[in-house]
Each structure stands twice: as structure tokens, then as C-alpha cells.
Amino acid sequence: MHPEQIKAELRMAGVSPAMLADELDVTSVTVSTVIHGKCSSERVKARIAEIIQRPVDEIWAPRPSLVRRRKPSATPTH
Hints:
Layout (H helix, E strand, L loop, with lengths): L2 H10 L4 H8 L3 H8 L6 H11 L3 H4 L19
Helix pairs in contact: 2-3
């Protein structure tokens, strides 16, 4: 989900990110970074998911693992 959609759904549930931060005894910055997917506090994610009644994986889709592919070697062909 887009971070703005997460915040909108929190507001519709009557909860602001600041209220959530107070409830979980974390900073507003922590809540914001979790909402934006830059931090992965499972506790904050679980509480947001509970409030907006969606599964965590639906809110923050799992990222595919990054696989580096080697460039083909530049071997001369004769």
C-alpha cells in the first residue's frame, strides 16, 4: 500500500501516527519510517495492521530478494 493510503486508513479508524507512537512508546519518526517501509518494526507493523484490519503482507508486500546477475564475460570468439 502507498504510505498515504496507510495514513488515511489510520485516520479513518480514528488514530493518528502520533497517537500510535504514544501508544507503542516509540517516536513519531519510527512510526513514519515504518509506514513508508524504511524501517521494519514488526510490533509497529502488527499494530497498524490490527487498527486498519488488513494483513501485514497486504500493507507491506514482501520485497523480492535482489539477485545480482553476472554480466556475460566478454570472451572473444574466433
